[in-house]
């Protein structure tokens, strides 16, 4: 996360309902999950 200015450009959404996932994936530059 240091590469991304200590997380200033990272959004941790928490739970996202299934119907919102497609829109979020389409807007994302990168997707990561644990």
Please describe the structure with a list of short key phrases separated by commas or semicolons.
elongated, mainly alpha, 29% helix, 1 helix
Detailed description of the structure:
This protein is mostly helical and 34 residues long. The chain has one domain (1-34). Helices cover 29% and strands 0% of the residues. It contains one helix and no strands. It has one helix at 18-27. The longest helix is centred in the middle third of the chain and has 10 residues, at 18-27. The chain is elongated.
What order do the helices and strands come in, and which of them pair?
Layout: H1 18-27
Structure, briefly:
The chain has one domain. With 34 residues, the chain is mostly helical.
Number of E strands: 0
Class per helix and strand makeup: mainly alpha
Task: Describe the main β-sheet briefly.
Answer: none
What is the total domain count?
1
Number of helices: 1
Helix content: 25-40%
Mean pLDDT figure: 78
**Overall geometry:** elongated
The run of helices and strands is: H
How far is the N terminus from the C terminus?
14 Å
Rounded to an integer in angstroms, the radius of gyration calculated over CA atoms is 11 Å
Low-confidence stretches: none
Q: Give the DSSP E fraction (strand runs of 2 or more residues).
A: under 5%
């Amino acid at each position: 996360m240091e590469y991304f200015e200590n997380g200033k450009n990272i959004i941790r959404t928490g739970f996202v309902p299934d119907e919102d996932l497609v829109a979020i994936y389409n807007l994302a530059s990168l997707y990561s999950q644990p």
